[in-house]
C-alpha cells in the first residue's frame, strides 16, 4: 500500500508518494487550466509547452482558496494520475496511480465550508475509490517535519510530531496564522488575512498599468516580474524617501526588459547601463518593488481593514493558553509562496520581536523550500504508517457510515491530541 | 471634519425641534433655510462615504480576479488518448459524485446555502489593526499627505493632484 500526498493549493498542487528518503521526490503542478491567445488549452503543467505567454487566461478549481469546481480539479488530477507525460507516473515506472491500492493525504483550506469538504470526500471515495484517506489543512502537516532544524537546534525530539508551532502560511489566496499543538490546529486562535500572492500580483498589475504600460491582461508576466524584483522592505520609511528623492539614480531602481515573445518568453532584468541596442521595451520599477509586498504587513494600505502578518500573529498567540505562548513564539515557521520574497523572514522577526513580551526567546524559522514544506510534513506523516492509520478513514468505513463519518473525523476539531500523544 | 460635525448637530437639533406641527410654524424663514441646507449637506456627506466604501469594496473584489475580462469560459480539453489505458473509465461513477462534478455553484452560492458555516469562515478573518493606517499617494506611492476634497483619495503634491483629477477622481455628481 503506497501513500500519496497531495497538498492541493489554489495556485500549485504539490504531489508525490510518501517515502522515507531525506529528500522525497515531489512535483509542483500548476493547479489551473490555461488558455493562450491562440485558443489552445493547457492542463496543469502543460503550460510549459506554450510558446506565447501573452494574455493567458485561467480557469481554477478554487475560489478564494475554497475548492468549488471539481470538474476542473478532476481534469488536473487525472492528468497527474494517468497522463503519459505526468512526472508522477514517470517516477513510478510508468504505472498510473491505482487508487484502490493507495492511501491519500489531502489538504484543504482552513475553515472550508462543510459542503465543500463533503464534496471532496465523495470524490475521493466514490469517484476515485482511494483505499483510505486523511483530510487536513496544510498548516497541520508542517510540524510533522523536524522544525528544530530551522533553528539549528540539535536537541532530540521525543514525540513524532513537533509539540508546538506557530505556522504562518502565506499562500496564493490568503494568509493564515495557525497555532499547531501536537499536530492539531488550535482552532479558536486561528486567524486569516485576506491577502495572498494573487492580490500582490494584481496590485502590481494595477499599479504598473496606471503608471506605465497597460498590463491588465498580463497576469502571468506580472507574477514573474513580482517574483523577480519585489522584496520586503526592512526600513520602509527610508526606502520610500530614497525612491522618491532620487528616482533616476536610486539604488532601488530596477529596469526590467519586457519580453518580445520572439527572442524571450519572460523578459529579464537589465543589468548595468542599459545597452542602447536592446530593442525591448523597458519597465522601470522603483518604489513598486517594496510598496506592493508591504500590503502583507499593512493591509490597510489597500484599504483592507485588517492587521498585518506580525500583528495578527501576536494577536493569535495572545488567544492561546498562557503556558504555551512563549513556546509558540520560539517555534514560528514561515511557509507558503510569499515567504520566498527577500526580506520577508527578517521583517517578520523584527516586528514580532517588538510585539513580543520581554525575555521571550523568539525564533523565526523558514525552511529551504517554504512552498513544499507542508507537503514534506505530509510525507513524514505518510511514511509512519502506524500514525496515519489512526487518523485516516478507510473506504470500507466510508461505505458503511457515509459522508458524515469524514465530516466528524476531519472536521474542525477541538484540542484532540489522541493522534500524536500515544 | 469640524464642519461636518456642526452640520450633523444642527440637523439633529432641527429635526427634534421640527417634530410638532405647531413648532414648525414658529420657524422663521432664516431658520428654515438653515435646516434645508443642513439636511442636504448631511445627506451629501453620507452618500459620499457610502460611495467611497463602495469604491473600496469594488477595488478589493477586483484584486481577487485573476482574469481581466469577466465571464471567461474555458472548456476542459478531452484528450483521453494521452492517458495510460485511456484514463479513468468514465466520469461520474456514482450519483453523488456525478452531482458534485456537474455542480455549477460558485462560492457565493455556497455561502448563501450555509449561513452558519459562512459566519464561522468570515469570523476567522483577522481583526483591524490597532495602529492608524498610513496614507499613501494613490498616484506615485509616496506618502499622501493631502486628500482630494471631491473623492477622498490621497496624493502627495501638486503634480499628483493634477494627475488624479484628470484620471482617477471618482466623484460622480448625482
From TrEMBL, chain A:
This is Actin-like protein ARP6. The keyword Cytoplasm applies. Keywords: Cytoplasm. InterPro entries: Actin, ATPase_NBD. Its main location: cytoplasm. GO terms for cellular component: cytoplasm; nuclear periphery; Swr1 complex. Component of the SWR1 complex which mediates the ATP-dependent exchange of histone H2A for the H2A variant HZT1 leading to transcriptional regulation of selected genes by chromatin remodeling. Involved in chromosome stability. The gene is ARP6. Coiled coil: none annotated. Component of the SWR1 chromatin remodeling complex. It comes from Sugiyamaella lignohabitans. GO terms for biological process: chromatin remodeling. The keyword Cytoplasm applies.
TrEMBL record, chain B:
One of its GO terms (cellular component) is nucleus. GO terms for molecular function: zinc ion binding. GO terms for biological process: chromatin remodeling. Coiled coil: none annotated. It holds the Pfam family zf-HIT. Residues 13-23 have a biased composition (Polar residues). Keywords: Metal-binding, Zinc, Zinc-finger. Residues 1-11 have a biased composition (Basic and acidic residues). Residues 134-160 form the HIT-type domain. InterPro entries: Vps71/ZNHIT1 (IPR039723), Znf_HIT (IPR007529). Residues 1-23 are annotated as: Disordered. This is HIT-type domain-containing protein. It comes from Sugiyamaella lignohabitans.
Amino acid at each position: 500500500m503506497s501513500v500519496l500526498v497531495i497538498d492541493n493549493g489554489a495556485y500549485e498542487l504539490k504531489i508525490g508518494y510518501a517515502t522515507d528518503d531525506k529528500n522525497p521526490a515531489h512535483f509542483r503542478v500548476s493547479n489551473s487550466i490555461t488558455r493562450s491567445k491562440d485558443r489552445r488549452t493547457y492542463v496543469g503543467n502543460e503550460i510549459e509547452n506554450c510558446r506565447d505567454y501573452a494574455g493567458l487566461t485561467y480557469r481554477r478549481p478554487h475560489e478564494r482558496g475554497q475548492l468549488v469546481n471539481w470538474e476542473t480539479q478532476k481534469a488536473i488530477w487525472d492528468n497527474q494520475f494517468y497522463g503519459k507525460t505526468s512526472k508522477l507516473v514517470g517516477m513510478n515506472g510508468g504505472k498510473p496511480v491505482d487508487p484502490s491500492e493507495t492511501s491519500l493525504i489531502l489538504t484543504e483550506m482552513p475553515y472550508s465550508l462543510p459542503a465543500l469538504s463533503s464534496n471532496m470526500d465523495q470524490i475521493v471515495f466514490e469517484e476515485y475509490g482511494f483505499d483510505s484517506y486523511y483530510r487536513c489543512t496544510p498548516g497541520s502537516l508542517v510540524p510533522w517535519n523536524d522544525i528544530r532544524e530551522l533553528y539549528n537546534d540539535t536537541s532530540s525530539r521525543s514525540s513524532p510530531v513537533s509539540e508546538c508551532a506557530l505556522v504562518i502560511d502565506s499562500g496564493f489566496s490568503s494568509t493564515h496564522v495557525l497555532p499547531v499543538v501536537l499536530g492539531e490546529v488550535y482552532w479558536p486562535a486561528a486567524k486569516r488575512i485576506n491577502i495572498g500572492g494573487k492580490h500582490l500580483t494584481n496590485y502590481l498589475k494595477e499599479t504598473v498599468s496606471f503608471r506605465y504600460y497597460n498590463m491588465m491582461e498580463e497576469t502571468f508576466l506580472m507574477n514573474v516580474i513580482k517574483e523577480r524584483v519585489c522584496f520586503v522592505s526592512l526600513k520602509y520609511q527610508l526606502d520610500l524617501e530614497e525612491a522618491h528623492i532620487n528616482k533616476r539614480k536610486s539604488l532601488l531602481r530596477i529596469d526590467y526588459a519586457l519580453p518580445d515573445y520572439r527572442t524571450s518568453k519572460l523578459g529579464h532584468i537589465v543589468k548595468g547601463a542599459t545597452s542602447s541596442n536592446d530593442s525591448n521595451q523597458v519597465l522601470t520599477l522603483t518604489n513598486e518593488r517594496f510598496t506592493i509586498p508591504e500590503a502583507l504587513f499593512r493591509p490597510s494600505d489597500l484599504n483592507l481593514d485588517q492587521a498585518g502578518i506580525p500583528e495578527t500573529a501576536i494577536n493569535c498567540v495572545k488567544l492561546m493558553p498562557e503556558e504555551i505562548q512563549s513556546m509558540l513564539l520560539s517555534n514560528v515557521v514561515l511557509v507558503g509562496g510569499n515567504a520566498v520574497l527577500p526580506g520577508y523572514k527578517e521583517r517578520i522577526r523584527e516586528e514580532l520581536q517588538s510585539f513580543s513580551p520581554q525575555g521571550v526567546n523568539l525564533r523565526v524559522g523558514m525552511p529551504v523550500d517554504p512552498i513544499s514544506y507542508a507537503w514534506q510534513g505530509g510525507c513524514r506523516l505518510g511514511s509512519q504508517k502506524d500514525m496515519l492509520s489512526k487518523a485516516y478513514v478507510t473506504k470500507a468505513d466510508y461505505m458503511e457510515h457515509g459522508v458524515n463519518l469524514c465530516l466528524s473525523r476531519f472536521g474542525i476539531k477541538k484540542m484532540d491530541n489522541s493522534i500524536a500523544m500515544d | 471634519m469640524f464642519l461636518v460635525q456642526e452640520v450633523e448637530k444642527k440637523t439633529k437639533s432641527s429635526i427634534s425641534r421640527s417634530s410638532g406641527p405647531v413648532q414648525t410654524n414658529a420657524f422663521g424663514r432664516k431658520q428654515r433655510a438653515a435646516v434645508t441646507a443642513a439636511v442636504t449637506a448631511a445627506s451629501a456627506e453620507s452618500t459620499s462615504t457610502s460611495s467611497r466604501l463602495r469604491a473600496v469594496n469594488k477595488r478589493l473584489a477586483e484584486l481577487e480576479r485573476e482574469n481581466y475580462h469577466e465571464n471567461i469560459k474555458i472548456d476542459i480539453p478531452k484528450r483521453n488518448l494521452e492517458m495510460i489505458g485511456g484514463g479513468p473509465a468514465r466520469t461520474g461513477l456514482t450519483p453523488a459524485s456525478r452531482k458534485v462534478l456537474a455542480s455549477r455553484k460558485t462560492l457565493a452560492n455556497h455561502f448563501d446555502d450555509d449561513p452558519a458555516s459562512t459566519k464561522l469562515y468570515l469570523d476567522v478573518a483577522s481583526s483591524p489593526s490597532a495602529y492608524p493606517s498610513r496614507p499613501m499617494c494613490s498616484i506615485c506611492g509616496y506618502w499622501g499627505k493631502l486628500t482630494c476634497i471631491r473623492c477622498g483619495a490621497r496624493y502627495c503634491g501638486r503634480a499628483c493632484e493634477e494627475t488624479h483629477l484628470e484620471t482617477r477622481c471618482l466623484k460622480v455628481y448625482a
